[in-house]
Amino acid sequence: MTTPLSLPLPRLTQARAALTREVEVVDEHGARGTVSIPAERDLTVYVDRRELVTLMTLGAQPELLVLGYLLNQRLIESASDVESVTVDWEVGAAAVKTHAGIDRIEERTAKKVVTTGCGQGSVFGDLMADIDNLQLPPTRMTQAQLYALVNAIRLQESTYKSAGSVHGCALFTLEPGGTEATMHCFVEDVGRHNAIDTIAGWCAMQPPDALAGDRVFYTTGRLTSEMVIKSAQMGVPIVVSRSGITQMGHEVATRVGLCAIGRATNRHFVCYAGVDRLVLQPELARRSPA
């Protein structure tokens, strides 16, 4: 499918939903109280009136989630392929209208792979298809920038701090050789795959020069093959996680030349792959955090 470059970005509704709800609980002492829990809900996606998939989500930015999902599934090539995304929480549905349809949609969505994503993520087709064609930019990150990134996440107000049980993802840019990391987008959802899809949708809606600088992706979840592939498809060559990495995630990162950093908390981290993209400054690890 080819879409003329002159087509505008899609029209998106702003169908926000409450991220948490209060429930009554009883603790180990028998004391009653209330706590906040994430408000997970189902969202069924229809593309040109054809049911595609049901996503389990918090519903913070559902239009961007749907747009990013279609991009990361490689069902569309750009946001301009889509005319509109309309979300209606009363019926739990997202209606996607494209300009020219999706070529061979039945064939391309016939094979479904259930992933390890929280909330049980699904991808269509071959996870490894075309990854050897991905060309990542020659981004390098200093250890000081890595620490700045981790600290920005620590300070970020989040649903996780108030209710737990969610994953967070963020997109940063770096100044070459510097010490700072600028956060542009932070998203939480019940699954890390939803969070990265939402960021992909957000990126697709930005002007071409809005994200000048080298990009780094952060996730609270483990680096599975799905997370590494989606990051690489977004043109992000460095991924940081506070968790670890799977065997397939490591294999894919090595194959595409992506830097995968895990166990990143405070001043500790482990670089699993692509260490040539990391400018090590081991003396910083011995300093006390500010």
UniProtKB/TrEMBL annotation:
Domain of life: Bacteria
Signal peptide span: none
GO BP, one annotated term: Mo-molybdopterin cofactor biosynthetic process
UniProt feature coiled coil, ranges: none
Keywords, alphabetical: Cytoplasm, Molybdenum cofactor biosynthesis
Gene Ontology MF annotations: sulfur carrier activity; sulfurtransferase activity
A Pfam family it matches: FdhD-NarQ
SUPFAM superfamilies attached to this UniProt entry: Cytidine deaminase-like
Active site: C118 (cysteine persulfide intermediate)
GO cellular component, one term: cytoplasm
The keyword Oxidoreductase appears for this protein: no
Keyword Cytoplasm on entry: yes
InterPro entries: Cytidine_deaminase-like (IPR016193), FdhD (IPR003786)
Location of the protein in the cell: Cytoplasm
Entry function: Required for formate dehydrogenase (FDH) activity. Acts as a sulfur carrier protein that transfers sulfur from IscS to the molybdenum cofactor prior to its insertion into FDH.
HAMAP family attached to this UniProt entry: FdhD (MF_00187)
Family stated for the protein in its record: Belongs to the FdhD family.
Protein name: Sulfur carrier protein FdhD
Organism encoding this protein: Variovorax paradoxus
Gene name, Swiss-Prot/TrEMBL: fdhD2
